[in-house]
Amino acid sequence: MLKNPIPKVTNQLQHRAIGIINGKFTPLSSEQLNRGFLIDKKDEKIETVVLGKALSLLKKHIDLKKSYYWIVYPKNKNTQNLHLQVAGIWDPYQLNDFPNDSSKTNFSKLLEELDLKDNYFSVRGELVFVNTQKKEIVMKICPAIKSKNLKNKNFKLAIKGELSLELIHSFVSLDINRDGNSLKLIKYEVIEKNLSRNK
Question: By residue range, what is the domain housing residue 138?
Answer without folding.
Answer: 122-198
